[in-house]
Specification:
Elements: H1 10-23, H2 32-45, H3 68-105, H4 110-124, H5 132-153, H6 161-171, H7 175-194, H8 207-231, H9 236-239, H10 241-246, H11 251-254, H12 267-279, H13 288-303, H14 308-332, H15 335-359, H16 382-391, E1 396-398, H17 404-411, H18 423-439, H19 445-451, E2 454-460, H20 470-473, E3 480-485, E4 489-494, H21 500-506, E5 511-512, E6 516-517, H22 522-539, H23 542-554, H24 558-562, H25 575-591, H26 595-604, H27 609-623, H28 636-649, H29 653-666, H30 671-684, H31 688-701, H32 706-718, H33 722-735, H34 741-756, H35 761-777, H36 784-792
Helix pairs in contact: 1-3, 1-4, 1-15, 2-3, 2-17, 3-5, 3-14, 4-12, 4-14, 5-6, 5-7, 5-14, 6-8, 7-8, 7-13, 12-14, 13-14, 18-19, 22-23, 23-25, 25-26, 26-27, 28-29, 29-30, 30-31, 30-32, 31-32, 32-33, 33-34, 34-35, 34-36, 35-36
Length: 794
C-alpha cells in the first residue's frame, strides 16, 4: 500500500502513538461476549446457527446470524491469545484503516492530511470497539481506496471489490455502506461527465472507465448478496437485516447507537463534517462524486451516531485531499513558518497522546495482573459473575441488556441471559412489553419476573430514574435482599427463594449499594464494616472501600484513612470513586497536619470537585489569608462551613471561626453555621460569651435540632449554668434522630458524668443508667473507661 511518502512527515508519524493509545484500550464492547460464544458455536457445530440458544427468554426463536466470519475470528483470537490478543487485533485494524485513508487521500501535504486524520480519529474514537462493525470500517476504507484508484487510473482494479464484498457479507452487513459508497461513485461519475460545473479539478472518467465502475460495483453488490444466499442458512434476509431494522422506528428511540448526533458530545464529528463540506465548496473542487459521498454518509451520521465512523472513513480522505491545495499555497512563501507549525503540530499530537494515556481510565494496564484486568468492568463485571457462580444464587437472572453479552461470554451454557444486544432475536414487542416494562417498573413488572423464574437481579448502580427505574425501586423493596455490589453493579436475591442460613451469610447489612452505609446502631455499623471489608477484599472494587472510609470518618479515624495505600483502589473501576477516595485521604492527611501529602493527593484526584476546592484552601493558608477563599464557588456558605471543619480538625480553630462567621453572615437563618461556630469557639476555650450567644441563636432558629441543643448545653456548662446545661442535654437526647447514635451516646455519657458530680444517690443511679445506655449505643464512645466504671455501679 503506497502512501505517497507521507509517512516521512513528522505530524503524520506523531499520529501513530495516538492511534496506538486509542486502539489499545481495554475491551468494553457489550456485544463482544456473545460474538465470541457465537464463534465458538459455529466452530463446534460446524454450521451457522439459525435459532437462539443464548437466552432463556427467547430460546429456540429464529436468529439471523449475519456476522459469522467475524465471530469465528474473534473466538479464534480469544481462544489462542486471550483478551490481550483481541486488543492487539483491534489496534492493528485501526492502524490499517488509517493507512488506507492516507493512501486514499493521496496528498503529500502533511498539514492537511494530519488535520483531517486527527479529526477523523477524535470523531470516531468512541466506536473503536472489538466488534464486526470495526472490520466493516476497514472494508469501507479499502472500498474507498479502490474507488479512488479507479478514478485516478480507470483500470481493472475495481474488480477486486467483487471478492472483497463476497467476504464482507460473511463478516458484517456493513457491506451496505460499501454499496452506498459505490452508488455515490457511480452516480457521481455519471454526473461529472454531463455537468461541467460539478466536474472538480480532474478530468471525468472515460466511457470505458465508467462502464468498468458500473460493472465492478454491480458485481460487488451481487457477490455480497449471492454470498449471503449461498452460505448462510438464513439466506439473503440475514445479510440485509439492517434494512429491515431501519423500518422499525422503535429501536431508533431506545438504542444509544441509533440516537441522533449531539452538537456538543459529537463536536469532532461536526468539525470534520464542516471541514469536508468546506473542502468541496470552491468551484474548482466541486466534485459530484465527493459531494454525493459526503452528503449520503453525513445524513445517516446526523440521524444515528453509529454511522459517524463510516462517515469519518469516507470524509477524511476527501477533506485531506481538497485542503492540501490551500495549505500548499499558504506555506509557499512561509517555509520557515511552515516548518515551525509542522513540528509544533507534531509536538501537540504527541502531548495529546501522552495526556490521553495518562487520563484514560480504560487504557491498557501495563503489567496487568491477569486477563480479567483487560475487560472493562463497566460492561464486564467479572468479579460479580464469579460471586454468582460461587454462591449458586437461585433462579434465572434479570439484568440490563448491556450485560447480556458479557453474561453469555462468562456463563454459557450453564446459565442463559435475559436479554442482550441481538435486537433481531427479541423483536420490538419483547423489548417494549417485556424487557423495558420490567426495567422501568411498568405495570405487571413483578409478575413478569415470576413468570420467567427470576430470583436474582443484576442491576446498574446510580442510573437515573425512567427507563432504568428498577435500580432505584428494588432497594426499597423488602422482598429483595442485597448480597453484592461493586463500582458499577449490584446484586439482589428474592428472600423467599434462598435458604435463610445462606442469605444470612451473604446479605449486606446496613449498606445501601447506592447511598452507602446507613447504620442506626454501633452493631449495624460493625456489620456494615465487615461486609464492606469482605467485598473489597474479594473484588478489589473501590466503591466498598469508599463506603468503608465514610464509616471511618464517623469515628474520626483520620490516621487509618491517611495511611491507606494506593494499591487499595488502583484496580480499574469507576474513576469518579477513585478520585473521591484520593480526596478523602487528602482530607485525612490535612487534618493530621500532613499538608504536602494532602496537596499531592488533591492534585491527583482529577475530576473530584472537592479536591480542587481543597487545593484552593491550601493556597489560601500559604498566602496567609483566607479572606478570598472559595469566592467563586457556588453555595459559598456551605463550602466555607466544610472548609472550617477541616481547619478545626487540623488545629486551626481561629481560621475555622473566621470562615464560619462569614458563612453565618451569608446565611443568617441557617442554624448549622451558627452551631458549628459555637462549637469551634468552645474548642478554642475562649470567647465563651460569643459561643453561648451563637448556640442560643442556633437553637432559636431550629428548636428541634438535637445537635444544636448539645452545643448549647456545653456552652451553658462553660458559663457556669449547670441547671441550664442539664436541661439542654436532656433535650438533646430526646431530639437526636436514631441514626445519630454516636452523638446520642456522647450526650448520654456527658450527662452521666455531669450527674456524677452532684454526688447524691439518685443522681449516681441515673448516671449509671445513662452510662450503660451510652455504652450500649456505642461501645467505642469517648470516655468509655469512665462510663464503664459508672455502669458497673449497677
Amino acid at each position: 500500500m503506497r502512501v505517497s511518502g507521507s509517512l516521512r512527515k513528522p505530524a503524520l508519524w506523531a499520529l501513530l502513538p495516538l492511534l496506538l493509545v486509542t486502539g489499545s484500550r481495554i475491551l468494553s464492547s457489550p456485544d463482544l461476549g456473545w460474538h465470541i460464544r457465537a464463534g465458538e458455536r459455529i466452530v463446534s457445530e460446524r454450521a451457522i446457527p439459525s435459532t437462539d440458544d443464548f437466552s432463556y427468554t427467547r430460546e429456540g426463536e429464529r436468529w439471523w446470524v449475519n456476522q459469522p466470519l467475524a465471530e469465528v475470528l474473534f473466538y479464534g483470537v480469544h481462544e489462542r491469545f486471550g483478551p490481550a490478543g483481541l486488543v492487539v487485533f483491534r489496534a492493528a485494524v485501526i492502524l490499517a484503516i488509517f493507512l488506507s485513508l492516507l493512501a486514499t487521500a493521496g496528498t503529500r501535504n502533511e498539514t492537511a492530511a494530519a488535520a483531517a486524520l486527527l479529526l477523523a480519529l477524535l470523531a470516531s474514537v468512541s466506536h473503536f470497539l472489538v466488534r464486526p462493525f470495526l472490520l466493516s470500517a476497514l472494508f469501507l476504507a479499502l472500498t474507498g481506496l479502490a474507488v479512488e484508484r479507479h478514478r485516478r487510473r480507470g483500470d481493472r482494479g475495481i474488480y477486486l471489490l467483487v471478492p472483497l464484498f463476497a467476504l464482507w457479507a460473511q463478516v458484517h452487513p456493513g457491506f451496505l455502506y460499501g454499496a452506498g459508497l459505490l452508488g455515490a461513485a457511480m452516480t457521481g461519475e455519471w454526473i461529472r461527465r454531463r455537468v461541467p460545473f460539478l466536474r472538480g479539478d480532474r478530468k471525468p472518467l472515460t466511457n470505458e472507465a465508467i462502464r468498468r465502475l458500473w460493472i465492478g460495483g454491480g458485481a460487488a453488490a451481487g457477490a455480497a448478496l449471492a454470498s449471503g444466499a449461498l452460505l448462510n442458512p438464513s439466506g439473503v434476509s440475514a445479510v440485509i437485516l439492517p434494512l429491515g431494522l431501519m423500518r422499525t422506528g422503535y429501536f431508533f428511540t431506545v438504542l444509544n447507537e441509533f440516537q441522533p448526533a449531539d452538537l456538543w458530545r459529537d463536536r469532532f464529528f461536526f468539525a470534520l463534517l464542516s471541514a469536508a463540506v468546506l473542502s468541496v465548496f470552491p468551484r474548482r473542487r466541486r466534485d459530484a462524486t465527493e459531494i454525493l459521498s459526503i452528503a449520503i454518509f453525513a445524513l445517516f451520521a446526523v440521524r444515528a451516531v453509529r454511522v459517524i465512523l463510516p462517515f469519518a472513513v469516507v470524509a477524511a480522505p476527501i477533506a485531506a485531499r481538497n485542503l492540501a491545495g490551500p495549505a500548499d499555497r499558504f506555506f509557499a512563501d512561509r517555509r520557515a513558518m511552515g516548518r515551525v507549525l509542522r513540528y509544533a503540530a507534531s509536538a501537540g499530537i504527541l502531548i495529546l497522546a501522552a495526556w490521553w494515556w495518562r487520563s484514560d481510565p480504560n487504557r491498557f494496564p501495563l503489567g496487568a495482573s491477569g486477563p480479567d484486568s483487560l475487560w472493562a468492568r463497566v460492561n464486564y463485571p467479572i468479579e460479580t459473575y464469579r460471586f454468582l457462580r460461587e454462591e449458586e444464587l437461585p433462579g434465572e437472572v434479570f439484568h440490563p441488556d448491556r450485560y447480556g453479552g458479557s453474561f453469555i461470554w462468562y456463563f454459557y451454557p450453564e446459565r442463559k441471559c435475559f436479554v442482550d444486544g441481538r435486537v433481531e432475536v427479541y423483536g420490538e414487542e419483547f423489548w417494549r412489553d417485556e424487557y423495558f416494562r420490567v426495567l422501568a417498573c411498568g405495570p405487571g413488572w413483578e409478575e413478569r419476573l415470576r413468570r420467567y423464574g427470576v430470583n436474582t437481579l443484576l442491576l446498574r448502580i446510580g442510573t437515573p430514574a425512567g427507563m432504568d427505574r428498577i435500580g432505584a425501586a428494588i432497594p426499597e423493596s423488602p422482598a429483595w435482599a442485597p448480597v453484592d455490589f461493586d463500582d458499577y453493579v449490584m446484586v439482589y436475591v428474592r428472600r423467599e427463594s434462598i435458604d435463610p442460613e445462606h442469605l444470612a451469610r451473604i446479605e449486606i447489612d446496613a449498606v445501601d449499594p447506592m447511598r452507602g452505609p446507613l447504620p442506626r446502631s454501633a452493631a449495624e455499623e460493625r456489620a456494615a464494616a465487615e461486609d464492606l471489608e469482605r467485598m473489597h477484599r474479594r473484588s478489589g472494587a473501590a466503591r466498598p472501600l469508599f463506603f468503608l472510609v465514610r464509616l471511618w470518618e464517623r469515628r474520626e479515624a483520620w490516621e487509618r484513612i491517611a495511611d491507606l495505600p494506593d494499591e487499595d483502589w488502583e484496580t480499574p473501576g469507576n474513576p469518579a470513586i477513585r478520585a473521591a477516595l484520593r480526596n478523602a485521604r487528602g482530607e485525612a492527611r490535612f487534618r493530621l497536619g500532613r499538608f504536602d501529602e494532602a496537596e499531592a493527593d488533591w492534585k491527583r484526584a482529577a475530576g473530584d470537585p472537592w479536591a480542587s476546592r481543597n487545593r484552593s484552601l491550601i493556597g489560601a493558608l500559604r498566602r496567609g489569608s483566607l479572606d478570598r477563599y472559595a469566592v467563586e464557588t457556588p453555595g459559598r456558605a456551605a463550602e466555607l462551613g466544610r472548609a472550617a471543619g477541616l481547619l478545626l480538625d487540623a488545629g486551626s480553630e481561629e481560621e475555622a471561626a473566621r470562615l464560619l462567621r462569614e458563612a453565618a453572615r451569608l446565611e443568617p437563618l441557617f442554624s448549622a453555621h451558627r452551631n458549628a461556630l459555637a462549637w469551634v469557639l468552645l474548642e478554642r476555650g475562649a470567647d465563651e460569651a460569643e459561643a453561648l450567644r451563637e448556640a442560643r441563636e442556633a437553637v432559636r432558629l431550629d428548636p428541634r435540632d438535637g445537635y444544636a441543643r448539645g452545643t448549647l448545653a456545653r456552652a451553658l456548662g462553660a458559663a457556669g449554668d449547670r441547671a441550664g446545661a442539664e436541661r439542654e442535654m436532656r433535650r438533646a437526647i430526646e431530639l437526636l434522630p436514631p441514626e445519630a447514635y454516636i452523638m446520642a451516646a456522647r450526650e448520654r455519657g456527658r450527662l452521666a458524668l455531669f450527674l456524677r458530680e452532684n454526688g447524691d444517690e439518685s443522681s449516681l443511679a441515673e448516671a449509671a443508667l445513662l452510662a450503660a445506655e451510652a455504652l450500649r449505643l456505642d461501645p467505642e464512645t469517648k470516655e468509655r473507661d469512665q462510663l464503664s466504671v459508672l455502669a458497673g455501679a449497677l
